[in-house]
């Protein structure tokens, strides 16, 4: 684990030097998108530069209520593509790691998504999110009703996007979808799913977009596309949307 992070940091330094950058790639705020730094007013713009995308506590509500799923999520992108993902599920003491082209692992053991192709025999993970706008709540319940009525074997939610994605990568659930979470919730976990043999796309079946605040991650295309038919999509403000103008 320490080796993986050190290699990535060395790689970031090498890329920066090649580009003629003199700044230190893990001290310059431009190279970070973190939940807390963005909350403190730092920008949330994904560039081609090497960028750490960090959620120090994913599952804050769980943490407050002692509901036992909480994770640390660290993604690293170059050219807007996730190259390394690390999710540490703290109470399970599971360290999930993935490197683009290098596979996904849990505590060093290789991960593989479920081989289930029948959505009716699947478990689907999702979250209710924190938006209580009645139109959004209606969409959430509409999607849920459609999916439950397919029917599927079950619907679950761990209360953390990073853990939900680790569950897809581990083959414990077939898919996870959500609208309204942020890039720091999913950057690392999305690579876990891809490297475990799964797919990641937009909830409408289009290309995945890290900054769109929408994700559908699944073990395979056939399960994913059956879910696309059931999901009532909505568009939260993007993570890289300009701040609203003040009067
Ligand atoms: O705030 P936080 O605990 O880091 O992250 C949370 C996510 O992991 C959760 O799945 C999602 O439903 C919440 O909206 C929130 O984004
Ligand atoms: Mg989070
Ligand atoms: Mg958090």
Strand content: 15-25%
Which structural class is indicated by helix and strand composition?
alpha+beta
Estimate the helix proportion, in percent: 25-40%
How would you spell out the order of helices and strands?
A: HEHEHEEEEEEHEHEHEEH
Q: Which cofactors or ions or other ligands sit in this model? A: L-MYO-inositol-1-phosphate, magnesium ion
Number of strands: 12
Biggest β-sheet strands, sense, barrel: 7 strands, mixed
How many helices does DSSP assign?
A: 7
**Low-confidence sequence ranges:** none
Number of domains: 2
CATH domain topology of the largest domain: D-Maltodextrin-Binding Protein, domain 2
InterPro entries: IMPase, Inositol_monoP_metal-BS, Inositol_monoPase_Li-sen, Inositol_monophosphatase-like, Inositol_monophosphatase_CS
GO cellular component, one term: cytoplasm
Subunit structure: Homodimer.
GO molecular function, one term: glucose-1-phosphatase activity
Could you name the key traits of this structure?
247 residues; alpha+beta; Fructose-1,6-Bisphosphatase, Chain A, domain 1; D-Maltodextrin-Binding Protein, domain 2; five-stranded mixed sheet; 7 helices; globular; binds magnesium ion
Can you walk through the features of this model?
With 247 residues, the chain is an alpha+beta fold. The chain folds into two domains: 2-110, Fructose-1,6-Bisphosphatase, subunit A, domain 1 (Fructose-1,6-Bisphosphatase, Chain A, domain 1, 2-Layer Sandwich), CATH 3.30.540.10; 119-228, D-Maltodextrin-Binding Protein, domain 2. It contains seven helices and twelve strands. It has a seven-stranded mixed beta sheet with strand order 1-2-3-4-5-6-7. Strand 8, helix 4 and strand 9 (154-156) form a beta-alpha-beta unit. It starts with a helix and ends in a 19-residue tail after the last helix. The mean pLDDT is 92. Bound molecules: L-MYO-inositol-1-phosphate and magnesium ion (MG) (2 copies). One magnesium ion (MG) is lined by residues 55, 58, 185. It is found in: Cytoplasm. Belongs to the inositol monophosphatase superfamily. It is an enzyme of class 3 (hydrolase). Pathway: Polyol metabolism; myo-inositol biosynthesis; myo-inositol from D-glucose 6-phosphate: step 2/2. This is Inositol-1-monophosphatase.
């Amino acid at each position: 684990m320490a080796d993986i992070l050190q290699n990535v940091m060395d790689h970031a330094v090498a890329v920066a030097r090649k580009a003629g950058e003199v700044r230190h790639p893990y001290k310059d705020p431009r190279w970070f998108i973190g939940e807390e730094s963005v909350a403190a007013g730092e920008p949330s713009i994904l560039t081609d530069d090497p960028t750490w995308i960090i959620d120090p506590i994913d599952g804050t509500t769980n943490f407050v209520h002692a509901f036992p799923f909480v994770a640390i999520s660290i993604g690293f992108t170059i050219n807007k593509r996730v190259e390394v993902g690390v999710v540490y599920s703290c109470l399970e003491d599971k360290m999930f790691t993935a490197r683009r082209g290098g596979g996904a692992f849990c505590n060093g053991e290789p991960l593989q998504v479920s081989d289930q192709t029948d959505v009716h025999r699947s478990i689907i993970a999702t979250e209710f999110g924190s938006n209580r706008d009645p139109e959004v709540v209606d969409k959430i319940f509409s999607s849920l009703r459609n999916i439950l009525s397919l029917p599927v074997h079950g619907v679950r939610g761990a209360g953390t996007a990073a853990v939900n994605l680790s569950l897809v990568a581990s083959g414990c659930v077939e898919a996870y979808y959500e609208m309204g979470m942020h890039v720091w919730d999913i950057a690392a976990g999305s690579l876990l799913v891809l490297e475990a043999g799964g797919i990641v796309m937009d909830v409408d079946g289009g290309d995945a977009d890290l900054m769109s605040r929408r994700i559908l991650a699944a073990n395979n295309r056939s399960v994913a596309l059956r879910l696309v038919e059931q999901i009532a999509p909505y568009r939260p403000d993007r993570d890289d949307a300009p701040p609203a103008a003040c009067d």
